[in-house]
Amino acid sequence: MLQSAKLKLPVWEAATVMVIILAVLSYGIIVLGVQPHLPMIFAMVLLMVYGMIKKVAISDIERGIITGASSGLGAVYIFFFIGMLISSWMASGTIPTLMFYGFELFSDMPLYFSVFVVCSIVGICIGSAFTTSATIGVAFLGMASAMDASLAITAGAIVSGAFLGDKMSPLSDTTNLASETVGVPIFEHIKNMMWTTVPGFIITAIIFFVISPGKGGSTEEITTFLAALQEHSYISLVALIPFVIVCILAMFRVSAIPTLSAGIVSSVVIAFISDSSLTFSKMANILFSGFVMDSNVEQLNSVLSRGGIESMMFSVSLVLLALGMGGLLFLLGIIPSLLRSIEKVLTNAFRLIMATACTAIGINFFVGEQYLSILLTGKTYENQYEKLGYNKKTLSRALEDTGTVINPLVPWGVSGVFIAGVLGVPTMEYAPFAFFCLLCPLLTIFSGLTQIGLAKHKHTEVSNTIQ
Predict the structure, then answer these.
(1) Is residue 466 part of a domain?
(2) How far apart are CA 30 and CA 412, in angstroms?
(3) Among the listed residues 174, 179, 415, 173, the one whose alpha carbon sits nearest the alpha carbon of residue 312
(4) For the chain, how long is the longest CA-to-CA vector?
(5) pTM for this prediction
(6) CB-CB contact of 339 with 376 (8 Å)
(7) In the structure, what pLDDT confidence band is assigned to residue 217 with cuts at 50, 70 and 90?
(8) Long-range CB contacts for residues 462-466, cutoff 8 Å, separation at least 24
(9) What single DSSP character describes residue 133?
(10) What angle do CA 360, 366, 372 make, to 5 degrees?
């Protein structure tokens, strides 16, 4: 993405162009309700026209798009492997087993606490906040309704857990997007996020434990779900072997693609052992098109029918478009000009992380898209983190803490609209109780203020020691 700007714009002009681009994206995504791809393409066309008006050669403009998009090729390949991992873990029973034991361990504990913890586990297992909210979340709302508990607080617990899982799962597209946008290995990124996620989880769990009305108990919906899970999936400790393999390789810092490959191969072997009717042709179809659960419980079908290379095409296309647009914003001097205007004040970690947070949160509110909040913010500030000597994993963590988890709190955001629709609880009602999502930006800003958990480059640390 990093390339020399062809234009040196005054701040007012760069700001005007950026406002127009954000307005186009906001109008398309929020007002018209279309997928972000089309507004993004239209915004790119506007930037191309602007570049030609400013006498930038069309060959340079095209090169800017390609250079920007090429920086996301690592994410594209990892997305393909993630799609295969999800579908193979469904087929082998790895994800169903993790879900089953999660319910068994926590479903009898205080309601809001168990909702938060189980949704966190399921979210990490399947890597999708949307799927977690739309399936397990809906089941928990039935439990809350049966107990006459607050639906708003229950929804807040669902959102908190689902987006904790989305933020921390190696299967999540936003987790991979944040790490790949700034070039940080996925498992190093996840490990570094512990600095803010663990305190956020503990504080949130305590709050939900204290305010819970009583034990979660079990409703007919949950009982039916677990029975169907046992009947139609392979529930066994053997099915956890791929999960253990991935965890061990991650701890030894093996790179993402070999780690994911090991998880896929081991789960495919277990799938063949556990299902005698499975053929190589069927498995190939599962890896490409995704696993399909066929049971008499619709919620189970929804949560376990996913994965495959094909399922990642939405994310892949959006990433390439957004990075191409980012390439144009750099090439035409728009982002460099805006950065120059604030560069003098970005003199320490606190100010830099605060600027990162405000930018990511602002894009979420103005555009309503968490992918763009990660991509644009990451590419805008990655050079500044390098200049101050901070490892880019500090930036990738800030992107997740202020980009991924904020989107469900925006009533017109993609996540906010989806979750309010599936849960039947308005965004403004559950937002005050989505404690984890509210805490993450505060914790990441606090880390910038205190320097806790901020990773610097080794050469910087050495030079500081010598001085």
Answers:
(1) no
(2) 6
(3) 173
(4) 68
(5) 0.68
(6) no
(7) low
(8) none
(9) I
(10) 50
| Per-residue pLDDT tens over the stretch 180-199 | 888 888 888 998 899 999 99
Encoding tokens for residue 69? 């998009």
CA-CA distance, 119 to 98, in Å (whole number)?
Answer: 12
Sign of CA dihedral 105, 443, 409, 151: positive
Look at residue 346 and tell me if it is in a domain: no
On whether residue 282 sits in a domain, the answer given is yes
Specify whether the CB–CB gap between 92 and 235 falls below 8 A.
no
Contact criterion met (CB below 8 Å) for 242 and 263 = yes
Q: What's phi and psi for 292, nearest 5 deg?
A: -120, 120
With a cut of 80, say whether residue 128 has pLDDT above it: no
Q: Which amino acid is at 110?
A: P
Residue found by looking up tokens 């990660």 in the block: 374
pLDDT in tens, 348-370: 888 889 999 988 888 887 766 77
Provide the number of structural domains found in the chain.
1
Beta-bridge partner residues of 456: 390
Q: State which amino acid sits at residue 107.
A: S
Give the Cα separation of 221 and 219 in Å (integer): 5
* DSSP code for 172: -
Report d(CA 255, CA 248) in Å as an integer. 12
DSSP 8-state assignment for residue 278: -
Q: Which of 55, 453, 79, 92 is nearest to 256 (CA)?
A: 79
What is the SS3 assignment for 100? helix
The two three-digit tokens of residue 346, written as one number? 């970005």
Per-residue tokens: 162: 């689902």
| CA 219/CA 226 separation, integer angstroms | 11
One-letter identity of residue 161 = G
Locate 337 and state its tokens.
Answer: 């000009």
Integer Cα distance of 346 and 10 in angstroms: 19
Residue entry with tokens 């607050």: 150
Using CA atoms, how far apart are residues 96 and 92, in angstroms rounded to an integer?
9
Q: Does residue 118 belong to any structural domain of this protein?
A: yes
Tokens of 207: 């709050």
Q: How far is CA 414 from the centre of its chain?
A: 13
Whole-angstrom distance, CA of residue 2 vs CA of residue 64: 10
**Spatial contact of 75 and 201, defined as CB atoms under 8 Å apart:** no
3-state secondary structure of 316: helix
pLDDT tens, 393-433?
889 999 999 988 998 988 777 788 778 877 878 888 999 99
Which tokens hold the place of 219? 């409703």
Which domain does 141 fall in, by range? Answer: 74-312
Beta partners for residue 206, in sequence order: none
